[in-house]
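Hello,

Following up on my earlier ticket. Below are the two sequence lines again, exactly as submitted.
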Amino acid sequence: MDQEANKPLSQLSDEMLVERYRAGNERAFEVLMRRYRQELFHFLLRFVGNRAAAEDLFQETFLQVHLSIDTFDPSRSLKPWLFTIAANKARDYLRRSSRQQAAPLSALIDQAQPDGRSFIDLLEADLPLPTEDLEKREIQELVQEVVSTLPDHLREVLLLAYFNRFAYKEIAAMLNIPLGTVKSRLHAAVGTFAQLWKSRYEARHPSKSKR
Amino acid sequence: MPSQPSHSSSQRVGVRYLCPADGEVLDALLEARRRGEDAAVSLPPDAGPRAQRLTQLLNLLDAMPTVPEADLPPVHSSLIAQIKHRQQFAAQVQMLSETRPGIGLGWRQVASAAAVFLIGLSLLFPFLERNRAEARRLACAANLGDAGVALAQYAADHQHVLPRGTVRPGAVWWNVGQDPAHENGVVSSNSAHLYILVRSGLIDADRLACPENPHAPLGKMTRQHLDWPSPQAVSYSYQNQYTAEPVRIDRNPHLAVLADKNPLFVVRVNRMTFDTSLPQTTPSKIHGNRGQNVLTAGGSVSWTIRPVLRSPGRGGDLDNIWLLRGVQRYSGTEHPQTPDEDSFLVP
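Thanks for your patience. The regenerated structure is below:
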């Protein structure tokens, strides 16, 4: 225990930093913010697709962490709690902004699609992959466009699972949804991503996509 | 509360599920990625080609841009200080609200009240500023609404076409403030076409000035002017009028015709140029890069975070309202080939 007490803050676990902050050490909070700055900010940026909003949400998330710090159970991991708060804030923001946004920013993939589930088999889908002569910036733009076109609830699960590497079980707990729903949302997110990628890529590069 | 599906920006995207075989491989791949293990260990024996295809697809996600360390939001103690100020303010308010009436105030209480007032003011300032920005954004949207009415009135009197002076298709259009007399009456400024609305008496020039534009010449523009005096004075970008045929207002109600100023065309060394350093989906600078108000030919005004609108005329394709489809470089003479489908809003 003494060894823990003498460690620099940057070497303490998240949960220990929470303890220190509760005890009045403000530097501990700053260390926590620094530790998650990159990962959390990128999650917010990819989720809401707007830098200014992501910065506001980043601040709001840590403000909420401060306000709710006494309710955090230090026997659990901090990261899922932190991302739960961030995801809630981002979802609220998207809900609010959807009332102001031009309604159809996204393209319709399949207008005649029935209500039932529609499946994609990647082995048969003939997905176009970027050729080497395609500019990196163009690929970036296209991927970003496709990800931002995904419905919010699918994009959220995809980001948490792929970039933030949360286990399905953790995502289920964070979003308060059944494990099966996490799986089905992820399968839908990747399937829809594939379909959107194919249609957008082929629209931009009709010749390359047939190679 | 459980995370409910919401469709704020993507209401009409048709959702496709991975087929069960792909889904199973995806689960294994993501679990292996999470553990930092080789996926081959946990994959079903016959999953090779599917795993390869899925890996290629997932690798595309890594192309999403990242923000360099130096550009991440700053982390310092100001946030904590702000939180503490708020709590202090709340405590002071609580204390004063408990003061019983009828008891005279001493200098300590007066000083305390003054401090609370000042702290409150300092805390309120960002919120007030945010509210003011929101009010200006709404006023700007109202301007575009009025411009929409004026455009519709003009079109009704002119065979459904948008305001357009004498042009030579393919000529330079970014000479804002030029005198057409020098060009034998031919206009080489796209904003001058929009200004026809003012000259026709259909709208006051101040209604075509966004409240967020500090260079807008409020109260100075009259019906006798031909154009705004400079690119900086222009608040809104208008559908490019340098097409072979005039742009009609009744062909495509979803076509963006007017919006907060296009940020990709900027003035450098007294001449306008296309800024290649900015991403093509950069929002207008007018509202602090937060987004832009956009007016469509159908008369609707909306606030968009990204400068793209769905274009039903092209199978739901996204249309970047700042640029022409397929054109990467601009010298000031480019114009839409299909002006009823391709928005190209320029100063």
